[in-house]
Amino acid sequence: MKTGTFSELEIQQKENPKPVIIHIYTSWCSVCKIESFQLNKDKKLVQLINENFYLINFDPEKMKEKISFQGKEFNYLPNGNSGIHELALALSKNKNQPLYPLWIILDKDQNLIDYHEGLFKPEDMKRKLEKVLKF
């Protein structure tokens, strides 16, 4: 799947507005790894996402740069040997610690369409994304 960054997203949305998928995960999350493998294996899903959405894969424990998103700036919050990006906390309903994987789907105007915590099966994701495109 083609993925981008938050900084690219601003430019892309001005040139060619599309719905956005933000996938929040961590490198240590075993469910995230299984899910990623299953989703990437589904060729129709990959094509659907690549053609109709902007996808951002976001590991909030590794991303330490400042991110501008929806007119606000978000920073990495160090905590001893680890930390978390405050954008992940802002997007998550659980403000102390997001549940992984977390999927945020926004329309082309950056309005929240869907919020999905935990494993997102390819068939369920395809159904959800096809509904988004019908709006």
TrEMBL record:
Q: Which domain of life is it from?
A: Bacteria
InterPro entries reported in the protein's UniProt record: Thioredoxin-like_sf
Q: What is this protein called?
A: Redoxin domain-containing protein
